[in-house]
Amino acid sequence: MLVKWEGIVIRSVDYGESSKVVTLFTRENGKLGLMARGAKKTKSRLAAVSQLFSHGYYLCKAGPGTGMPDLSQGDIMESFRDLRQSLSATAYAAYIAELLDRLTHEREPNPYLFQLLLHTFRYLDEGRDAEILCRIFETKMLIVAGISPQLSACANCGAQREPYAISVSQGGLLCPVCLPADPYAIAVTPSTWKLLRLFQVFDLERLGDIEVKPATRNQLKHVLRSFMDEHLDLRLKSRSFLEQLERMERLPTKDSE
């Protein structure tokens, strides 16, 4: 039986001498694995459609059982060429794709996540702020994973009493009275926790220009990564590479010395 899915390639792994196993995140059926036979061959019609980040329609031959469908042909709608030509954008996209892959299950439809991924890649391709896009995506994926920090009031007593810190162990904001409950609570500015709260409910399709100070960027990253490290058992290769790249980009250049 032939089926057609709209999907985005979030993983592509070599299989044997000439084939690839492609993981799609589809609009209709969530995450799916496909066998792209002969895709490693230069002249294969499947070579382009099996490339990482490609967005298109995929015609697959699916059997009656639960085995992996064979990819018959594909029609690329967006290849995100500019994204691929930027090392930084590619690193962020790879991290976002791996994070999605690790936090979703096979064949669980989630059109919202498909749209989130698609718009994130489109913005990365346009050269928008990759770091902030990544922070928004991480915030959304924490919710998908069942971890949604309490950011409207104190997670311990429920009071709305500033200044707040953020506690990973208590699950969100801590007011000054409850701060002793977590000696490791993260000191943050109001801009940081308000941005995090906005990211939780924000519709990415409405993204405009967001100006975020370097100190706030650092706090956003520290808070989100702390929640992920504490509550999710993830070891992402793409994150290690991205962090190395971020450290290199912070090094002073000769022009700045």
TrEMBL record:
Residues 1-80 form the DNA replication/recombination mediator RecO N-terminal domain. Gene3D superfamilies: Nucleic acid-binding proteins, Recombination protein O, C-terminal domain. Keywords: DNA damage, DNA recombination, DNA repair. PANTHER family: DNA REPAIR PROTEIN RECO (PTHR33991:SF1). The keyword RNA-binding does not apply. GO terms for biological process: DNA recombination; double-strand break repair. InterPro entries: ARFGAP/RecO, DNA_rep/recomb_RecO_N, NA-bd_OB-fold, RecO, RecO_C. Transmembrane segments: none annotated. Involved in DNA repair and RecF pathway recombination. Belongs to the RecO family. One of its GO terms (cellular component) is bacterial nucleoid. NCBIfam families: reco. It comes from Brevibacillus nitrificans. SUPFAM superfamilies: ArfGap/RecO-like zinc finger, Nucleic acid-binding proteins. This is DNA repair protein RecO.
